[in-house]
Design brief:
about 350 residues, mainly alpha, MetI-like fold, 2 domains
């Protein structure tokens, strides 16, 4: 037991230390990519009709005329001191913009991941235990259709059916304007309404989340269905499962205690790695549903080449992805001790 605990601790420490170079590489790549691309944020905002003297002055204030290495170290210093700069478009501190918008995207991402996990793991397990049966073929067809359907089109269809035709759910925003916004604890309305005891507000926040979450979650569930199905089939045919059956262990126990547990190890890893796909899909989903989150913020920042906003968003996304990857590795290390060595 002591050796197992020590190996897990050493594994976690190693993964934490590896976070630093990973983030540094990500920050460097983002910085160089923005500078190598043609154009600059000031020209993108003011266009050809802008006053050349004003444009030149703004560029000097932003340090765009400084040598590249000076801009790079100024950028890194700002990142490690928590100063992301000021958005060129909104003239607000980037850190404030991110703090205002990130909770909305996290709320959407978490709820979408729940939808994707329920559909993906549930249907994937169902199909894997019924290989080559009609239900298996039907599930595989659903998975292929779900994963290949355009997010924006699927979102519009859901809005049309459940919002316009049936009138069951709201089709835009995060909260009804007729209700008072909850006190800000986390920025996530579902959590804040619960913490403040506002059940009516909680129901309203959940109602606004349903369609965006279904849009993003069902699309991603197609991938989870396929990978879960494959791993369940492989696990059910493995030697240790056959050995458990030979010992007379009931089939239900064989499946849940042996086959499914091992089948979910690669699925959990994949879920963590594809968490980034939810953020990329959130850009389209937030645009379709007028959901004021990081997706729309990044979209406008890229449109106007807003260097500080893009760099700040990448820093937050990078840290979030690295932390999620670390948590997934730790979970896998608990599930499968072989990963620690």
């Amino acid at each position: 037991m002591a050796g197992s605990s020590a190996s897990l601790r050493a594994y976690v420490i190693t993964r934490v230390l590896l976070m630093v170079p990973m983030l540094l590489i990500l920050l460097t790549f983002t910085f160089l990519l923005l500078r190598v691309a043609p154009g600059d944020p000031v020209s993108a905002i003011y266009g050809e009709k802008g006053n050349p003297q004003v444009i030149d002055q703004i560029k000097r204030e932003l340090g765009l005329y400084d040598p590249l290495y000076v801009q790079y170290f100024t950028y890194l210093r700002g990142v490690f001191t928590g100063n992301m700069g000021t958005s060129i478009v909104s003239s607000k501190p980037v850190i404030q913009e991110i703090q205002d918008r990130m909770p909305a995207t996290l709320e959407l991402t978490i709820s979408s991941m729940i939808v994707a996990s329920v559909f993906g793991i549930g249907l994937g397990t169902f199909a894997g235990t019924r290989r080559d049966r009609p239900t298996d073929f039907g599930t595989r067809i659903f998975a292929s259709m779900a994963y290949n359907i355009p997010i924006f089109w699927f979102g519009l269809i859901l809005k049309l059916i459940f919002g316009l035709w049936l009138g069951w759910l709201p089709v835009s925003g995060r909260f009804s304007p007729r209700l008072n916004l909850p006190p800000r604890f986390t920025g996530m309305y579902t959590v804040d309404t619960l913490l403040s005891g506002d059940l009516r507000g909680f129901a309203d926040a959940v109602a606004h989340l349903i369609l965006p979450s279904l849009t993003l979650g069902i699309v991603l569930s197609g991938f989870f269905i396929r990978i879960t199905r494959v791993n369940v089939i492989q696990s059910m045919g493995s030697d240790f499962v056959e050995a458990a059956r030979a010992r007379g262990i009931p089939e239900r126990s064989v499946f849940f205690r042996h086959a499914l547990k091992n089948a979910l190890v690669p699925v959990i890893t994949t879920m963590g790695l594809t968490f980034a796909l939810l953020f990329s899909g959130a850009i389209l989903t937030e645009t379709v549903f007028s959901f004021e989150g990081m997706g729309r913020f990044v979209f406008y920042a890229i449109s106007y080449r807003d260097y500080p906003a893009i760099q700040g968003a990448v820093v937050y996304y990078g840290i979030l992805m690295v932390v999620i990857s670390l948590l997934i590795d730790i979970v896998n290390a608990f599930v499968d001790p072989r990963i620690r060595y």
